């Protein structure tokens, strides 16, 4: 990474760059309606992080910190929508933005952070393990609405 790299919270002004990056995550996704954009950036406990190199959004993820009534009332975090620009991968940007999200979860009192992926590529799984995630700790189950 270069000296111009910075990680910060994203806001509504970053939506175009974020949605362009999301096309590399889920190619062909329809753009969200304006009310979904507003909801995503005003929802309490949900934060979007972006790693910038200069003015270019290079990597992103979001973090939801969820209140909890177990574990002494400590919240937990969920990281989703992790993506790094295809032309900037394997340079530490994705790991840096994930590490930032984890640090923010700890700062918000979370006792654990979860991350799931639908990618079936062992290299992607190894990437998340290098970020500190334990693939044997929990098992995720998913149901999708048709």
Write the layout of secondary structure elements.
Elements: E1 5-9, H1 15-22, H2 34-42, E2 46-53, E3 56-66, E4 76-84, H3 93-107, E5 113-115, H4 122-130
Parallel strand pairs: 4-5
Antiparallel strand pairs: 1-2, 2-3, 3-4
3D architecture notes:
Its EC number is 2.3.1.-. Pfam families: Acetyltransf_1. Keywords: Acyltransferase, Transferase. This protein has 146 residues and is of the alpha+beta class. The protein has a single domain, classed as Aminopeptidase, CATH 3.40.630.30. It is built from four helices and five strands; from the N terminus they run βααβββαβα. The chain has a five-stranded mixed beta sheet, with helices on both faces. It is globular and about 40 Å long. 19% of the residues are buried.
